[in-house]
Amino acid sequence: MSFSLTFWIVMLVFALYMVGIWTASYNDDKTKGL
């Protein structure tokens, strides 16, 4: 149970981290006019 909980927490943090990077790069492309 604890392993599953830790696994999901790590996945959630990783997903949020990836979304943050993707959003930042997407906004940078928009400001550059690409």
Walk me through what this model shows.
The protein has 34 residues and is an all-alpha fold. It has one helix at residues 2-32. It starts with a helix and ends with a helix.
Blueprint (SSEs and pairs):
Blueprint: H1 2-32
| Biggest sheet features | none
The helix content, as a percent range, equals over 70%
Would you tell me the structural class of the helices and strands? mainly alpha
Taking all Cα atoms into account, the compactness measure Rg is 15 Å
Beta content comes to under 5%
Along the chain, the helix and strand elements come as H
Notable traits:
about 35 residues; mainly alpha; about 90% helix; rod-shaped
In short:
The protein has 34 residues and is an all-alpha fold.
